[in-house]
Structures are given as C-alpha cells and as structure tokens.
Amino acid sequence: MNKRKLWLTLLAAVLTFGLAFAGAFSPVAAQTDDTDDDTDTTTETETPTQTTQNQSLMAMIRNNDQLNDFETLVQAAGLADNLDNDGPFTVFAPTDAALANLETVAANTNVSVTDILLYHIVNGSYNGQTVANRSALTTLMGENVDIAVNAGSVSLNDSAGLVTTDIQADNGTLHIIDTVLLPPENSIFTSNQGSRDDTLWMVLEEDGRFTTLLSLLETADLGLNLDNPAQDYTLFAPTDDAFAKLSEELMEQLMNEPATLETILAYHVIGDSLSINQIANDDYIPTLEGRPLIVTTDASNNVSLNGTPLESFNIVASNGVIHAVDTVLMP
C-alpha cells in the first residue's frame, strides 16, 4: 500500500460515524421527475452520461478507475454497506485527482473528513437533468450544495464540475465530479458545543456562564418554555459577565419592574432556530420583543449584533440554538 493510500485509510479509520451517522441514512422516495418546483423551464446540459446498470452504488464506485481513493475513504469509514444495501441516494464522487489535496484541505479547515464525506451524499435519486433544474440539494450532512448552470455546464458550489453524470445503480445515482465539495465552516450541523439531546434550559444550566440569565428568566413572564422540546428558539444569551457590566440601578430596575425585564429578555429571543451562518446573511433579525437586532459582519466574518460581537455561537440544543453575548442587548 503506498503512502497516500495508507494516509487515506488511516484518516477514514478514525472517523466516528457510529449510530449518529447511521441515523443520517434515512431512505426517501426516489426522485424521478426532471422538473423543479421553482423552475419553469428545463435546462439542457452537455455532461457525458452512462446508462443504467443492475448494480449497487458501492459496486459502481468499486468498478470505476477514477474513484479508487473515494472507495478507500468510503470503505474505511464503514459506509460501504449503506451504499450497497440502503437508499436511494445520490452520490457526488470526487475523482482521484480531485482528492489529491484532501490531506491539505483537512488540515486547513475546521470541517472534519466525516462531514466532507457526508456533504457528497444526498437522500433520494436525482439524475443529471433533475440536478440541473435545482438551485440546491440538501446533503446528509445537513447543509445544502448550491447548483448553477452556465453554458450548459452544471457546477456545484461554483467550484465542482460534473465529469460524468447518470451512472444509474439499483439504489440511486452516481455523478463523478472534478473537485472536492467543502461544507461551509461554522456549520451548525458540525457544532460540538451544547447537546442535541438536551433542551435550551438544560444547555444553559450545564454551560455555567448563564446563572444570572436563568434566574431572570425564572422571574419574568415571557410565555416561553425553554425546557419544551416541541418549541424552537434562538437565544442570544448574555453571560454572567454581561450582566455584571450593568449598573446597580439598572439591575435593581430589572428585578423590580417586570415589564422592563420582560422587554429586555424578549429582545434576546428569536422564534426560530438560526445558525451563525444564517444570521451572518441577514441585515436585521426580528425579535420576540418586536424590534429587530441589527446584524453586521466585519472583514474577518465576525458577526456583531447592535455592534456587540458574539462571544461564542452555535451552542446547539434539542429545541434551538444559543449564541452567547458579553453585553446585554438594549432595544
């Protein structure tokens, strides 16, 4: 085994897919319609195609001389059985040439190789024409791959081109691409902060930085239940240090005037779950209080609300997400 093949095998062997990954492989009905709900016309593409063969996706990968390294990663990561027996899936498989710099890419990004692999697989079987008529597809990682067509050529994320399309398998469709697809950094789907099993209230308690906020939330009558897994919120959570910056007079006012306290706390809550990347793409965000938070992003892509930088972000919970702020936000 050459050095590169050994590196790929060792890299994939340490990936911890386990039961969490198995949950991502939830088969859905195969996509056979060549039209998009948001597209009125069919886009003609010129990428080479292959005809239907009575084999699994994994068999197609094994039998393709351009996909030796991709096969190594899939095998070592324990995905071969899924691509042999489950589905339908659509796989965008990078060629060996595309994977040549994967070691460098993996070392220079906070996105794991596990997430990179998941970002190349989509639930459902989408042929080339259907892909061309979509604006995006949601991957098993959770993030979307963006799709564009220029002069009859399909590109993914404005970087990857289709080398060969429509390699049809019994359990889906294989497309060969010329560039590795990289998920966005700071994806909420890759966050290791918080707990996807615990509610927002539990995550705030376990974090340890939000004791003052929890005490004030218990006092206020906001009509919120952060311990209810059926609800979904984004909470811009002031830390204990943030409340310590307030004057004694203002803290006394918050404790003695319920309306003022509820106004300020409601200004920190959004009635939906928003990741840092979603927030960064907005100019303002409506709050439960009614007035919006103003969003700015600097040259280094650091996000601020009303001029206050986020201390940390994408702290996940079962019923929403927390972004910590070191200053109490005032409407």
Walk me through what this model shows.
The chain is of the alpha+beta class and 331 residues long. It folds into two domains: 3-185, FAS1 domain; 191-325, FAS1 domain (Roll), CATH 2.30.180. The protein contains 14 helices and 14 strands. The strands form two sheets. The chain has a seven-stranded mixed sheet with strand order 2-1-7-6-5-4-3. A seven-stranded mixed sheet has the order 9-8-14-13-12-11-10. Strand 10 and strand 11 (292-297) form a beta hairpin. The radius of gyration is 23 Å and the shape is elongated. The model is unreliable at 16-24 and 26-43 (pLDDT under 50).
Structural class: alpha+beta
Mean of pLDDT: 85
What is the molecular shape?
Answer: elongated
By CATH, the architecture of the largest domain is named Roll
What is the number of independent domains? 2
Flag low-confidence runs: 16-24, 26-43
Distance between the termini: 63 Å
- CATH fold type of the largest domain: FAS1 domain
Relevant CATH superfamily of the largest domain: FAS1 domain
Q: How many helical elements?
A: 14
Q: Strand percentage, roughly?
A: 15-25%
What's the gyration radius in Å?
Answer: 23 Å
Task: Compile the SSE list and pairings.
Blueprint: H1 3-13, H2 18-22, H3 57-62, H4 68-76, H5 80-85, E1 89-94, H6 102-107, H7 113-118, E2 121-123, H8 128-132, E3 136-138, E4 144-150, E5 153-156, E6 160-169, E7 172-177, H9 200-207, H10 211-219, E8 233-238, H11 240-244, H12 248-256, H13 258-266, E9 269-270, H14 276-280, E10 284-286, E11 292-297, E12 303-305, E13 308-317, E14 320-325
Parallel strand pairs: 1-7, 8-14
Antiparallel strand pairs: 1-2, 3-4, 4-5, 5-6, 6-7, 8-9, 10-11, 11-12, 12-13, 13-14
Helix pairs in contact: 1-4, 12-13
